[in-house]
Amino acid sequence: MDSNAKLTAYLNANPGVAGKVVDFNAATDKLYHFNLTASNQELDADTFSDTNKFTSWITAKLSQANCRYGIGGYMENRTIYARSAHFDTTDEPRRLHLGVDIWADAGTPVYAPLDGVVHSFQDNDNFGDYGPTIILSHNLDGLTLYSLYGHLSRESLKRLSVGLAIHKNQKIAAFGKLNENGNWPPHLHFQLIFDMQGKAGDYPGVCRFSEKEIYLKNIPDPQLILKFPAAVNQ
Q1: What is the C-alpha separation between 136 and 114, in angstroms, rounded?
Q2: Integer Cα distance of 148 and 132 in angstroms
Q3: Looking at residues 98-104, what average pLDDT do you find?
Q4: Which of 18, 53, 96, 118 is most buried by its number of CB atoms within 10 A?
Q5: Given a cut of 90, is residue 200 above it in pLDDT?
Q6: pLDDT at 115
Q7: The domain that contains 69 carries what CATH number?
Q8: Does residue 72 lie within any of the structural domains?
Q9: Which residues pair with 152 in a beta bridge?
Q10: Are strands 96-97 and 76-77 parallel, antiparallel or unpaired?
Q11: What angle do CA 144, 149, 151 make, to 5 degrees?
């Protein structure tokens, strides 16, 4: 049984094991699905290349749809990464998004959905990068799972230490402002990882499209933990 199958089996056998990542109430909160691919002709390069314009666009969409949170991105082939040289490579640019983005206001609380420990953390302070990032390690009956939280506030990294115990539903961070979160509209990049491959404080959140099948084996769908209901279509 591969790691994806083991994780699915574990979560099915323990339906109450996963807690929340954000304060989402399915009875009162709606989710807006953001399409950040080339098929969304409304979002042009002039908008997504300018952080303030991009932020205004995100905010307006959430407001118009009366949604507290925006959602989307797992294995989405996005055009928006053309905004930063951070995602360019000599042979094929990185455009395939490996996590789920949760869009909301700066300061929005972030919680650990599983018991675990702090694996690593750092401020990936580059334009288009994660900014402040926390990675937790979880032991699920012998299956090691890592969870990554990117685009946080710098305050979120204070008082952390490697190996620090973290409990389910414990507040661990907050969404960062655009001037500290890698120059993005405020959001959380939430990603699950089986093998950190020796990395600490950072792990690719975007890969080349040609690498999709490789990363699918190491990056499970965050919806397995989030269990968000269907979003409002764009």
Answers
A1: 9
A2: 11
A3: 96
A4: 96
A5: yes
A6: 98
A7: 2.70.70.10
A8: yes
A9: 175
A10: antiparallel
A11: 160
In a domain, 234, yes or no: no
Asked whether the beta carbons of 49 and 80 are under 8 A apart, the reply is: no
Its domain, for residue 176, covers 3-226
Both tokens assigned to 197: 């491959």
pLDDT of 81 higher than 70: no
Any domain includes 231: no
Could you report the per-residue pLDDT of 29-78, keeping only the tens digit for each? 999 999 888 788 887 877 777 889 989 999 999 999 999 999 988 998 87
Q: What is the dihedral of CA 166, 197, 96, 32, to 10 degrees?
A: -10
Q: Tell me the torsion sign for CA atoms 78, 52, 68, 148.
A: positive
In whole angstroms, give the CA distance from residue 234 to residue 228. Answer: 16
Question: Quick check: 221 and 194 in contact, CB under 8 A?
Answer: no
The answer as to whether 123 is a domain residue is yes
| DSSP E strands, the chain | 31-33, 69-72, 76-77, 96-97, 100-103, 109-111, 116-124, 131-140, 143-150, 165-166, 171-174, 187-193, 206-207
- Domains identified in the chain, total number: 1
Query: Which of 161, 205, 155, 199 lies closest to 177 in space, CA to CA?
Result: 155
Nearest to 149 by CA among 208, 205, 197, 97: 205
